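Predict the assembly for these two chains.
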Amino acid sequence: DAEITQSPRHKITETGRQVTLACHQTWNHNNMFWYRQDLGHGLRLIHYSYGVQDTNKGEVSDGYSVSRSNTEDLPLTLESAASSQTSVYFCASSNGQSEAFFGQGTRLTVV
Amino acid sequence: LAKTTQPISMDSYEGQEVNITCSHNNIATNDYITWYQQFPSQGPRFIIQGYKTKVTNEVASLFIPADRKSSTLSLPRVSLSDTAVYYCLVGPMFSGGYNKLIFGAGTRLAVHP
């Protein structure tokens, strides 16, 4: 069955370190998204991609970057982790026509 | 993208029908309305999607009036397991389409025994 997976599920890192969160989907979807969700709040769009080599900034992109070298993967990089980036991160993919599928989330703690 | 407005929270009891209304006054002609459900510590999950009138599946019904400026998600006979956050999204949907999924704050539904 097709799926979307995120890794790691939990990560603790230190302030200033570079961190990369992985997202891999086997739906063959062109559209992929990264969100962050802070406790008790909705999802905020960080970056999104409509296909290979395409990336776009979302609502809260400062301090984050993505790259799309193939259809399956959209890694999210925190260039210099800050405590304000402690959050739960969700990756999603869609074909643009119907439902989007979400990963299980990555809980990131920056100390 | 059309802005959506939903109640922040709702309370209900087991066995009752719950209706959550979403306002989207500036919905565009090619926009669809999609609802997602999110349980704690999980990613959102698609519930239902519609364009106009009424759509029903095994989980919920979606009512959309003729002017499409609002929509109502109806959950029949809720149980404790329906306690979750429900999000209403509005945007174009077509194969290969460039739909940017923007989530609002959602509606936090609490179902009580």
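The mean pLDDT of chain B is 91. Residues 14 and 79 of chain B are 5 Å apart (CA to CA).
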